[in-house]
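Example complex used in Figure S2.
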Amino acid sequence: MPTLEFKGKQHIYAHHLTVPYRPLEIDATKSYTYIIPPPLEPNEDSSCNPTNTDDNLIIHGDNLHALKALLPRYANRIKCIYIDPPYNTGNENWVYNDNVNSPLMQQWFTENTPVDNEDLERHDKWLCMMWPRLHLLKELLADDGVIFVSIDDNEQHHLRMMMDEILGKENFLADIIWQHRYGRSNNAKLFSNQREHVIAYRKSDAVSHIRVKRDEKLNETYSNPDDDPRGSWVSSSYVNPATKEKRPNLVYAVINPHTRESINHPTHAWKYSRSTYENHVKDDRLWWGIDGNLRYPRLKNFLSESEEKGIVPIDLMLADVAGTTDEGTKQLQVVLQSTALEFNNPKPTRLIANLIGIAEGASGKNDFIVLDSFAGSGTTAHAVLDLNKEDGGNRKFILIECEDYADTITAV
Ligand SMILES: C[S@@+](CC[C@H](N)C(=O)[O-])C[C@H]1O[C@@H](n2cnc3c(N)ncnc32)[C@H](O)[C@@H]1O
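Predicted assembly (412 residues):
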């Protein structure tokens, strides 16, 4: 398998293993609920018990250390991880400051300068920053968990290759395209960008089937013209796209119950076997039109059954469904009660809620912890609380933010 080479890779390759465990320190004055420490798990090391609360957590600090501190309690337990790391656009002011024991990286560490467009090693630094963090996130992810990473075209191609290497190519789920704005920016010299990526991987093939809740809009196409007691339905064609020659086992005569006529399709097979057709007749699932005058039958698909099954997610999230960056900004202005934000480009809660919905559809659970180790303004927590309010769920969140605004923006 092709792998991605970058400066520093050999030095950070196993860095996640050497990062020391440091216990989390609880600041009771900032805790909404202060809970007596839960008993340790049988093989949990008391010297690095990370937390004395099982409630929502906001951790102020570098996520490399925070993720390591979470491992003893949360390894293999997180079903949904969402991260939104710096995109490495060259003007975000992020600094590479992992104290890795190698001359090259010690130089990066002591430089302590923002990674900007002039920095010829900016992609190497970004990859060195992400590598150990993705390893730790993988350890935290449950076997039936899903990790989502927001990114744009600056690093999307590198990120995919790195995630293939760390999480396994076979665990790639989707490169979800999110339409993050409606309009076009005429300040752009070449192309105006309307979409970002959310790269999704599973931890293992314990995730083998994903269904999400149906969008209310899809239900509008259902109706009940024959007052079927089973409720609204839509019909689908009974005619197979394959010809009779190709599918001779699906060729037989069907009876129109209104005219008692025996009907054969002239060229094509039916979609279902004769025995399934007989069951459809018994179950009154064939639709011949309101007066029985359709040429061929159609199959009734009931809304109640579709709701139970859910729908497969798609890899395109349009702004109408997932919101835009502008929507995220407006939401944050409301939360902070200010229009002069010191935080740029927060994600809209609808985007995160949709991603959490996919993780729920993958694991079949909706009472899990959502981890966001690049928390920013705390959109992930906002989405979790909204979803709980909506459906009475018991989801929790763990957020990590290194900047001082962890208290003033993330936690608010
Ligand atoms: C792109 S923003 C996330 C925005 C967030 N999704 C939102 O909707 O507000 C990235 C955040 O990660 C934080 N960050 C960057 N490096 C970090 C690190 N090593 N540890 C913890 N947080 C980090 C930054 O301070 C910034 O707030």
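Residues 62-63, 84, 86, 94, 346-347, 374, 376-377, 379, 400-403 surround S-adenosylmethionine (CB under 6 Å). The mean pLDDT is 93.
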